[in-house]
Design a protein that fits this description.
heterodimer, A: 113 residues, mainly beta, Immunoglobulin-like, globular, B: 115 residues, 7-stranded mixed β-sheet, 11 strands, 48% strand
Chain lengths: 113, 115
């Protein structure tokens, strides 16, 4: 039972343009969502998060949007840079249940110069 | 601040052999997690410790996997005997108090190949 899904295994974007990564979830109990970035041979590093009481959170070039009714979130990167090339994981959690993260399958972003 | 330390970085073993992974969390982090990431998938939680007690091990294949966290600091994850499908990256993470929005940090992982 895949509770968190990232349906695009890969995405290729031109430098300077917008990258949009999508994530869908099925469990309505999730109340906290995170995006992680992962380079090869490294662990996931935290990028940005959003609580279910919000519909948008912004940090520099990164913005996460949450649509609770559609059970959908997206990560926007503007402008995209070659250093953003990595695998991006969406993760979901229920805050009062110990910090267990449920991850999507990941989307590999390639930003071309 | 030192990050989450894991060793070894890579391990290759034959099926039916045993293997152990070690994790040293960030100092002061009470909660420790072991995740398994199979190629092409996202990480999946195997076991969660709060200090030296197990909070969640519902996804741990207990017939072959075991984990301990002595003295509430370092942790080891063991597989015995290993199967081909255990080939994966094993990630350790730690956090202050079991909340994803409070210092949750991953180590670099141990890549296990079972042949």
């Amino acid at each position: 039972d895949q509770q968190v899904k990232q349906n695009s295994p890969s995405l290729s974007v031109q430098e300077g343009r917008i990258s949009i990564l999508n994530c869908d979830y099925t469990n309505s109990m999730f109340d906290y969502f995170l995006w992680y970035k992962k380079y090869p041979a490294e662990g996931p590093t935290f990028l940005i998060s959003i609580s279910s009481i919000k519909d948008k959170n912004e940090d520099g070039r990164f913005t996460v949007f949450l649509n609770k009714s559609a059970k959908h979130l997206s990560l926007h990167i503007v402008p995209s840079q070659p250093g953003d090339s990595a695998v991006y994981f969406c993760a979901a959690s229920v805050l009062n249940q110990g910090g267990k993260l449920i991850f999507g399958q990941g989307t590999e972003l390639s930003v071309k110069p | 601040e030192a990050g989450v330390a894991q060793s070894p970085r890579y391990k290759i073993i034959e099926k039916r052999q045993s293997v152990a992974f070690w994790c040293n969390p960030i100092s002061g982090h009470a909660t420790l997690y072991w995740y398994q990431q199979i190629l092409g998938q996202g990480p999946k939680l195997l076991i969660q410790f709060q200090n030296n007690g197990v909070v969640d091990d519902s996804q741990l294949p207990k017939d072959r996997f075991s984990a301990e966290r002595l003295k509430g600091v370092d942790s080891t994850l063991k597989i015995q005997p290993a199967k081909l499908e255990d080939s994966a990256v094993y990630l350790c993470a730690s956090s202050f108090g079991g909340y994803p929005n409070y210092g949750y940090t991953f180590g670099s992982g141990t890549r296990l190949t079972v042949v």
